């Protein structure tokens, strides 16, 4: 018996007789699952082993189980000699000859030695089966070790992918999940062969590569759900047919070059299931044994895969719940929000007119005003009167954000982006997508973050900290400050370009001392609020207290007035509120220097329409640029040029000067 361990050794053995047998090429054809045949070919002894396809005679030799000889138009002759062992057809040796070769002698030699060759082939097949069984057990062991010991879910998935690839050569592995309760969820666990190894591809990266949004992916999959729920091998022909009716498969084929795929469902709790999809960019890559291996593997890893997908979907559901909760709160407070703005004075009426004008637009609004003037209420009113009223309004107090975490809070971060980033976090901007973001105390942002915020406001896109995926935004921005940002920009404490960007529509909220006729209305509202809360029957205030309230300077504005009324209600012993001693003592110490100076207003105070407001704003820009050009002697570029002073690129400044009618000699046309 010829003792050989691998099929290539059988081929090499036969090639030792090539010179005396006179064949040109030799194929070793073996029947495999689903009528597929494995062809092992060598064009010369010691040459590279390749897999060839020759369907000219294999069907006949495997069907008729006799020697077959066919002459081709090119003059070559192909002969197939079957091999039997224990009366069972094992395979065939297929040889090609030219016309002058000793064909009869060669085929006679093969028939004489076919039994010995069949035993050698059978032995090598048994060796390969044992080897594959060992590799399969090894794969299962590697997978189970990863599932039980690996804490990083992404690394766990890559380990599973590499183990599967050792048994089933593949180019892409993905696990979409399905649930009757939550619908289809595209998994963030996708591994793709790149540079000789496998790389983890995030949910967003996968969608971007496919050119699909999540909803399109979900609807496409749900339309053909039965495809994902049954184990199946999609051969090249079947996958091509699938690509014609399933957009997801079409994109995998056209974008990633997938030609064949294995689908193996994995049962999950609550009638949910996931599908392990293994893809190849080559034809004839998968056999029935591969499907069997994955089905057995799926039974073993059901629990762990369920944990992996649950971990992934937890974050998605949390985001969804936060957004739904935000929307619910907005709907409940929609009517109340505008009614909270109390007042009938001309000053507050002017503010409300501006709110009505700007709310339906998507223009960026800058609310300027002293502390306690109600900037958040105005921001909420603008949002609730806009087309985004049914979307989130996300508030960000820039002054309260820890310096080292500001970027993460605003833009979010990926898992592992920095020490302590144990999971992905969605930032405020992303949460506000589709709605409005209110940046309170924007003047407190560090300068280094202002440049990143400027990019967001210009491009309406962000990147999470540690991420590579660009996320497009559809948001409306409302900013607020109690600082003089224009003066801060001149002193290089705030970026001038950011100031211009956020002040598309600026207006000032009047301090309480400029709307004293609203004080009685505010007092009545606060008395009702705190009487009900504390449980006292307060009817009003004494004439002496009202007179004091009307003449106080109110440096803390409405917030200060509210606190005074709350304190008076707590101390009240009768139906009338009287002056609180602690308040009058502190108030008597207040002088004019304690009153904050009014913020400058860079637009006509009596403007009747948006055109007037815009003209006033452009005039403010023109005057400031002329002032800076005068100070720099007309120099635009360079270290001490006007562009650097204004925080602009020289080309941007020149374009703005042209728009504003400012010549290079800095005179105004």
Structure description:
With 669 residues, the protein is of the alpha+beta class. 48% of the residues lie in helices and 16% in strands. The strands form five sheets. Strands 7, 8, 9, 10, 11, 12, 13 and 14 form an eight-stranded antiparallel sheet that branches. The chain has a six-stranded antiparallel sheet with strand order 3-2-1-6-5-4, with helices on both faces. Strands 16-17-20-15-21 form a five-stranded parallel sheet. Residues 1-5, 33-54 and 588-608 have low confidence and may be disordered. One of its GO terms (biological process) is regulation of DNA-templated transcription.
Summarize the structure in short.
With 669 residues, the chain is of the alpha+beta class. The longest helix has 52 residues, at 288-339.
């Amino acid at each position: 018996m010829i003792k050989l361990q691998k099929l290539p050794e059988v081929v090499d053995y036969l090639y030792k007789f090539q010179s005396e047998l006179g064949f040109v090429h030799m194929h070793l054809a073996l029947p495999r699952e689903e009528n597929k045949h494995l062809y092992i070919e060598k064009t010369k002894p010691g040459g590279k082993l390749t897999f060839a396809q020759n369907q000219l005679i294999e069907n006949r030799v495997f069907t008729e189980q006799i020697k077959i000889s066919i002459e081709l138009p090119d003059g070559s002759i192909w002969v197939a000699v079957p091999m039997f062992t224990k009366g069972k057809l094992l395979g065939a040796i297929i040889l090609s000859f030219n016309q002058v070769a000793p064909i009869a002698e060669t085929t006679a030699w093969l028939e004489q030695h076919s039994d010995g060759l069949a035993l050698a082939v059978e032995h090598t097949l048994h060796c390969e089966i044992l080897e594959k069984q060992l590799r399969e057990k090894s794969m299962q062991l590697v997978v189970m070790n990863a599932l039980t010991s690996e804490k990083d879910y992404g690394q766990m998935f890559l380990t599973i992918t590499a183990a599967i690839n050792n048994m089933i050569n593949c180019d892409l592995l993905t696990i979409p999940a399905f649930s009757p309760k939550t619908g289809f969820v595209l998994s963030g666990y996708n591994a793709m062969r790149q540079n000789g190894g496998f790389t983890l591809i995030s949910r967003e990266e996968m969608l971007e590569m496919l050119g699909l949004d999540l909803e399109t992916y979900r609807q496409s999959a749900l339309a053909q759900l039965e495809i994902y729920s049954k184990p199946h091998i999609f051969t090249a022909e079947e996958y091509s047919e699938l690509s014609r009716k399933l957009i997801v498969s079409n994109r995998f084929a056209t974008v990633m070059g997938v030609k064949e795929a294995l689908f193996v469902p994995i049962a999950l709790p609550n009638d949910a299931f996931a599908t392990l999809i293994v893809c190849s960019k080559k034809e004839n890559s998968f056999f029935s044994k591969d499907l069997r291996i994955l089905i057995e593997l799926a039974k073993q890893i059901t629990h762990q895969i369920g944990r992996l997908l649950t971990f992934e979907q937890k974050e998605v559901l949390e985001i969804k719940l936060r957004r739904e909760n935000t929307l619910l709160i907005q709907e409940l407070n929609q009517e109340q929000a505008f009614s909270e703005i109390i007042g009938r004075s001309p000053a507050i009426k002017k503010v409300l007119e501006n709110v009505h004008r700007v709310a339906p637009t998507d223009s960026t609004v800058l609310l300027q005003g002293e502390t306690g003037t109600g900037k958040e209420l105005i921001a909420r009113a603008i949002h609730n009167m806009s087309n985004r009223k049914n979307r989130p309004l996300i508030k960000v107090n820039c002054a309260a954000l820890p310096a080292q975490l500001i970027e993460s809070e605003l833009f979010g971060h990926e898992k592992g982006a920095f020490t302590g980033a144990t999971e992905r976090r969605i930032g405020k901007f992303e949460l506000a997508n589709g709605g409005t973001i209110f940046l309170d105390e924007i003047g407190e942002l560090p300068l280094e973050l202002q440049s990143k915020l400027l990019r967001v406001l210009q491009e309406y896109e962000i990147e999470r900290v540690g991420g590579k995926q660009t996320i497009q935004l559809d948001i409306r921005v409302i900013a607020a400050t109690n600082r003089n940002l224009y003066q801060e920009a001149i002193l290089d404490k705030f970026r001038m370009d950011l100031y211009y960007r956020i002040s598309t529509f600026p207006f000032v909220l009047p301090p309480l001392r400029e709307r004293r006729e609203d004080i009685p209305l505010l007092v009545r509202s606060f008395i009702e609020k705190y009487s009900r809360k504390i449980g006292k029957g307060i009817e009003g205030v004494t004439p002496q207290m009202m007179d004091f309230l009307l003449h106080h300077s109110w440096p803390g504005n409405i917030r200060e007035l509210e606190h005074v009324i709350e304190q008076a209600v707590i101390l009240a012993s009768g139906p009338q509120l009287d002056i609180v001693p602690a308040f009058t003592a502190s108030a008597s110490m207040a002088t004019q220097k304690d009153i904050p100076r009014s913020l400058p207003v860079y637009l006509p105070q009596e403007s009747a329409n948006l055109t007037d407001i815009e003209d006033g704003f452009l005039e403010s820009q023109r005057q400031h640029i002329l002032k800076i050009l005068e100070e720099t002697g007309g120099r635009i570029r360079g270290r001490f040029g006007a562009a650097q002073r204004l925080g602009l690129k020289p080309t941007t400044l020149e374009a703005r000067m042209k728009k504003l009618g400012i010549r290079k000699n800095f005179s105004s046309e």
